[in-house]
Amino acid sequence: MTAQNPKKRGIAFSTDFITSLIIFLLVITSSIWIWDMVKYRVHTTPLHERQVQRLRAASDLLILTPGDPPTWHRPDNSQANVNWSAMKSFGLASEPYILDELKLKKFNESVQSDGSLDEVAYNYTQYLLGLAGEEYNLTIFTNCTSETPTILYDFRGNFSMENATQIHVHSRLALLNGEWVKVRLMIWRRRD
Amino acid sequence: MSPQGYILSLDALLALLIAGFLISATLYLLGPPGREARDEVLYRIAMDYLTVVEKDGSLSRAMIEAAINSTLPVKCIYTKLDDYAKLYPSVCMTLRIRNESHTWACAGAVDDPEKCTHKGEESVIVHRTFIAQEQPFDAEMEVWYKK
Asked: Does B18 map to a domain?
């Protein structure tokens, strides 16, 4: 019969226990941090990417295509308004990168006295440019490489940008009557 | 023989490796936008410029000027590259035009000696062929973001 060793004790916090606890806490903390990031990105990234893609596609439509029908700016009766409901796509170019001044002037006829587009023109162009759900501002500048570019045309809806969120801007270069112009398309959402 | 405990056992190491892999993968996927998106923007910047300067006759004028100046390569004047760069202050750009025999006709650059030197592999090169003086030329534009 052997005598019990009174010094033999169990160790509550052994080295491997403490090590594993530290590792466990590190992993848990990282996971919580990453989870928050994932939640944020999952919510914002698809929207952000979708908006940027829409913006690029819309700017392509504006400066590369004449719209469909290409003579949308010349209705049968020259005094008549644009038949927006008959349009299949919207574009301002006579050929890629060359803007058609007649189209710009015709579109400008839809601008009201307060500087905004009338609701019908705005809603149809918004839809035809693939920007449903986004508000847009389209501005065309001359002297675009100078320090003080001049606004030649400005097309926008009747909305204040005070509550704008998710704003994206894309500027393109094009020709209008042989001169360089900057075509700036800005899209944004209204904060709920 | 003294009994020894294992601080890191095999299964703990395995778990640690898996956790590390998952965390690294997540951080990578959550990183900044991929190269494709940035390349698309740079591609449009270059293609917009090359198309517009071809259509407004600037490239042809530059070639006439290059033909007058026999010393090669000459600076691509008339191409308004400096003007264009004002629209994109964060982008460095170079323009090189060569003729059919691959001789440089002219070259131009808008770059910041400090911020444009390290373009690495993140530049985008766009080519556009055009006709001037009844000869084909190749305009090559390289664009990249300033550091």
From this structure: no
Highest mean pLDDT among A10-24, A47-61, B5-19: A47-61
Full residue range of the structural domain in which residue B113 is found = 31-145
pLDDT in tens, A38-47: 777 777 677 7
DSSP B42-87: HHHHHHHHHHHHHHTTHHHHHHHHHHH--SSSEE-TTS-HHHHHHH
Q: Which residues 82-101 of A have a C-beta within 8 angstroms of B?
A: 96-98
Q: Quick check: B69 and A188 in contact, CB under 8 A?
A: no
**Which ipTM score applies to this complex?**
0.72
Domain count, chain B: 1
β-strand pairing of B124-132 with A179-190: unpaired
Provide CB contacts within 8 A for A155, sequence distance 6+. Answer: A107, A108, A111, A117, A125, A137, A138, A139
Identify residues of B whose CB sits under 8 angstroms from chain A CBs. Answer: 5-8, 12, 16, 19, 23, 26-27, 30, 37, 40, 44, 48-49, 51-52, 55-56, 80, 83-84, 86-87
Nearest-CA distance from A173 to chain B in Å? 6
- Cβ distance of B80 and A97 shorter than 8 Å: no
B43: nearest Cα among B32, B35, B54, B53: B35
Q: Measured at the alpha carbon of residue B72, what is the angle toward residues B71 and B73, in degrees to the nearest 5?
A: 135
Give the span between the Cα atoms of A146 and A142, in whole angstroms: 9
Let me know if residue B21 belongs to a domain: no
pLDDT of A140 reads 95
Per-residue pLDDT for B11 more than 70?
Answer: yes
Structure tokens at B30: 């959550």
Residue B63 placed within a domain: yes
Chain B residues in contact with A145 (beta carbon < 8 A): 80, 83-84, 86-87
What single letter denotes the amino acid at residue B81?
L
Does B136 fall in a domain?
yes
Mean pLDDT of A128-134: 91
